[in-house]
Amino acid sequence: MAVNVETLDKLERKITLELPVEAIQKEVNARLKRLQRQVKMDGFRPGKVPLSVVAQRYGYSVHYEVMNDEVGRAFNAAVAEAQLRVAGQPRITEKEGAPEGVVAFEAVFEVFPDVKLGDLSAVSLEKLEAEVDEAAIERTLEILRKQRRTFSPRPEGEVAQNGDRVTIDFEGKIDGEPFEGGQATDFVFVLGDGQMLKEFEDAVLGMKVGESKTFPLAFPADYHGKEVAGKTADFLVTVKKIEQQHLPEVDEAFVKSLGIEAGTIEALREDIRRNLEREVKFRLQARNKVAALDALAAAAELDLPKAAVEAEIDRLIEGARNDLKQRGVKDADKAPIPRELFQQQAERRVRLGLVVAELIKAHDLRATPEQIDAHLRELASSYEYPEEVVRWYKSNPERLSEIEAIVLENNVADFIFGQAQVTPKRIGFAELMGQG
Predict the structure, then answer these.
(1) pTM of the model
(2) End-to-end CA separation in angstroms for the chain
(3) Can you tell me the distance from the alpha carbon of 229 to that of 240, in angstroms, rounded to the nearest whole number?
(4) Where do the structural domains in the chain lie, given as residue ranges?
(5) Local confidence band at 383 (pLDDT 50, 70, 90 cut-offs)
(6) Do strands 177-190 and 165-174 pair parallel, antiparallel, or not at all (unpaired)?
């Protein structure tokens, strides 16, 4: 029987579902009889409760359950016959004026759009490039030394310098009034590590143990503490202890402490280079991938199904609530989160998902087992026991699917760059790594 599909809007459709009342009642009776054999009621032996009593007690809920099941089956059969790809959940309401012996419903829903891929050969793209230079290796070596540094008290009378660990008391006031988070006792931080605002560190530089100082500090307009952002506070700080840092010498013992059995500086530098090159590769892939996917989506023509966007907003809000929970925010599940905050992000995700899926289907860009294994082994090579990491991923379907998704996106990005007009753009290592 042909299904009549009515177009309401670009992607919105409506179909009418008709179910025979007799068939529904037959299924209701069958379920009540099965329930009769299981139900227990006072005054009756198990399995001996009269069907009329079972129907009186459970008839409404069983009828509701059957209607839901039958409407769902009828809807799925109708959209399958009409070869429709449904986006989101349908809105199903009972229809009045149905013929005798029939109960009718109207299902309103959206379908996934037809996607028209753009001409990628007309797309211009910059492709970022970067390399690991000697300065990057030196900087990483200094970071490794700092991670293993020790501290000892600075001689009496000497002033605080960059690299020193200081212990201070401080109190901040805005317009003469203390503010939350503006006071601390025996607070410890290392000068030059960026733990405190630069103006705060600059004020402590040059101070001696026992010395106090009052200074103004202007909080940036985008400071994470909204209650003080853009305001100026007066801080009173007292230095209680100054400790100078001692960086370990780069010798055989230091090298071996990092797991480099050869114990030579050359072996350590080569290990650093390999790790940095792997990190550079992954970061370049990630940034170039975003540019390629955005270009792909911009060149495509399609309508966005509202239901899919709304579902994506729901997922983003749920993710935001989970993040708040992990941060210890009280009643995070009840926190008001405006849906419009995620509208643009949700639309981008849905658009990308539809366009990428169409490109993968059109050009067979699926991730092969060999590609997945190669990416996984490259990722695992940065760990101390790579084979254990590989086994862990392969024994965890959810994690393995994440690797597959990354490889799939890489295939898509490579295809786009292979078709587009590409201009290489070299950037510095520090810029790529977000080091300023």
Answers:
(1) 0.73
(2) 67
(3) 28
(4) 5-111, 150-246, 263-432
(5) confident
(6) antiparallel
Cα–Cα distances in Å, from 152 out to 164, 196, 241, 271? 9, 22, 10, 31
How confident is the model over 297-339, as pLDDT tens digits? 999 999 999 999 999 999 999 988 888 888 887 877 877 888 9
Question: What is the distance between the alpha carbons of residues 162 and 201, in angstroms, rounded to a whole number?
Answer: 9
Tokens representing 285 are: 């892939």
Give the CATH number of domain 150-246.
3.10.50.40
Beta-carbon contacts of residue 51 (< 8 Å; ≥ 6 apart)? 32, 33, 36
CA distance 165 to 239: 11
Query: In degrees, to the nearest 5, what angle opens at C-alpha 197 toward C-alphas 194 and 199?
Result: 120
Q: What is the token pair recorded at 9?
A: 């809007």
Environment class of residue 336 by beta-carbon count within 10 Å: exposed (0-12), middle (13-18) or buried (19+)? exposed
Q: Are both 5-111 and 150-246 of the same fold?
A: no
Task: Write down the H helix ranges in 364-396.
Answer: 369-380, 386-394
Helix 397-419 vs helix 386-394: crossing angle, to nearest 10: 100
CATH of 263-432, one of 1.10.287, 1.10.3120, 1.20.120, 3.40.50: 1.10.3120
CATH class of domain segment(s) 5-111: alpha beta
Sheet containing strand 12-20, edge to edge, reads 5-7, 12-20, 102-111, 86-95
Q: How confident is the model at residue 387 (pLDDT cuts 50, 70, 90)?
A: very high
For CA atoms 282, 284, 287, 292, the dihedral sign is: negative
What is d(CA 266, CA 273) in angstroms, rounded to the nearest whole number? 10
Structure tokens at 100: 């005798």
**Helices marked H in 3-133:** 21-36, 51-81
Structural contact between residues 291 and 126, judged by C-beta atoms closer than 8 angstroms = yes
Distances (CA, A) of 422 to 298, 356, 363, 417: 16, 20, 20, 7
Q: How far apart are CA 258 and CA 145, in angstroms?
A: 10
